[in-house]
Amino acid sequence: MNAIILAIGDELISGQHVDTNSAYLSDRLATVGIRALAHWTIGDELSAIEDAFKRAAAAAELVISTGGLGPTGDDLTRQGLSDAMQRPLALDADGLAMMEAFFADRGWTVSEANRVQAMLPEGSQALANIHGTAPGILAKLGEATVVCMPGVPHEMKAMFEQHVLSRFGSQSGAIVRRALKTFGMAESEVGVRLADLMTARGDTRVGTIVKAGVITINMQTRADSADQASRVLDDIAADVRRRLGVAVFGEDDATLGSVVGELLKPARQTLATVESCTGGLIGKMLTDTPGASDYYVGGVIAYSNRVKEDMLDVPAELLREFGAVSQKVAQAMAEGCRKLFASNWAISTTGIAGPTGGTEEKPVGLVHFALAGPSGTSTTYQHIAGTREIVRIRAARVALNMLRLALLDAQ
């Protein structure tokens, strides 16, 4: 089966709220082999809702909507579906009974305003809402099955798990997804190396998404069983790894911080950090992983020259001659940090995150890095484009990737 998901509400159109329901539904539908063809967001306008139901039912076998089932005048999903089906709304006895039971459990009385929530298109079926007042709706529109659910996430999720997965869960096999994470290779180069894989082939899709330097290779396939789909993705993932080499640092939820930890921990090696422009982000990325204390001993945020001199023994003459944002100072920071913490490795960052502070010689986005380790100290620099936030995040990732590659070389 294929599905189209409708998110209904002016608050979504205006940007006041972000639609997380559609992402959840696509992910859960995939586990039972149902692929979402599209997500549509519709405001609280009756004609637009009616049109969306008609178009979605003509394009997909399953249409799922969230939102617009409340008791107020702007909740128009029921009427929009009624108009699309050309069936009048009528008070549904089962839906009303569900509401009355929900209210009675809480010592409440169903008001006239709430009774409208039990008005369903003739020929449709009410779906129990165990966490709220609004029943869901199960209906047919042409050849498509339509499911309408509340927009409140915990109400929607419970209804979906109870009524949708149980109804459609065994019909379409399984869709399996996997992701490979890369860093250090340009998106254009990744695209060239994976060009033939990224051409849609049947039920298999390969695509990329980029965020602050991390390029994620998303892979998806549909098969009769999860095991069969997993075997297909095993082959694709192995091919991607061959083509991209050490640029691939992990799968699915892996981060550069967690992968560095996986390399340090078995070798019983330790790491310390000293950060200027990244302001502690490297330490955060490392300690986001539980158990990081096994290898991460600590760090210094050396934002001022005085801290660089007093805590890390960076010579004052280096700072005067080359400036804080320089290869020489980055090297001295890393070596001073390694000595201070008595660690096997130390990494440093010093740069200009912006949006001000740059010069023609040292523009905004210039960051110097150093990695001090058992075999000496290596340095590099990058000119990172983007906002202050992007410069800082990407710089932290460059530093971690620098260490990751060194650890791989040392194996």
Explain the layout of strands and helices:
Elements: E1 2-8, H1 10-13, H2 21-30, E2 35-42, H3 46-59, E3 62-66, H4 77-85, E4 89-91, H5 93-105, H6 112-115, E5 119-121, E6 125-127, E7 136-141, E8 144-149, H7 153-168, E9 174-182, H8 187-193, E10 205-211, E11 214-223, H9 226-244, E12 248-251, H10 256-264, E13 271-275, H11 281-287, E14 296-301, H12 305-312, H13 316-322, H14 327-341, E15 345-351, E16 366-373, E17 376-383, H15 388-410
Parallel strand pairs: 1-2, 1-3, 3-8, 13-14, 13-15
Antiparallel strand pairs: 4-5, 6-7, 7-8, 9-11, 9-12, 10-11, 15-16, 16-17
What does this molecule look like?
The structure is a single chain. This protein is α/β, with parallel strands linked by helices and 411 residues long. The protein folds into three domains: 2-168, Molybdenum Cofactor Biosythetic Enzyme, Chain A; 174-251, Alpha-Beta Plaits (2-Layer Sandwich); 256-410, Maf protein. It is 40% helix and 26% strand. The chain has 15 helices and 17 strands. It has helices spanning 10-13, 21-30, 46-59, 77-85, 93-105, 112-115, 153-168, 187-193, 226-244, 256-264, 281-287, 305-312, 316-322, 327-341, 388-410; strands at 2-8, 35-42, 62-66, 89-91, 119-121, 125-127, 136-141, 144-149, 174-182, 205-211, 214-223, 248-251, 271-275, 296-301, 345-351, 366-373, 376-383. A hairpin with a 2-residue loop joins β7 and β8 (144-149). α2 (21-30) packs parallel to α7, α3 (46-59) crosses α4 (77-85) and α10 (256-264) packs across α11. The radius of gyration is 28 Å and the shape is elongated. The model has no long low-confidence stretch (mean pLDDT 94).
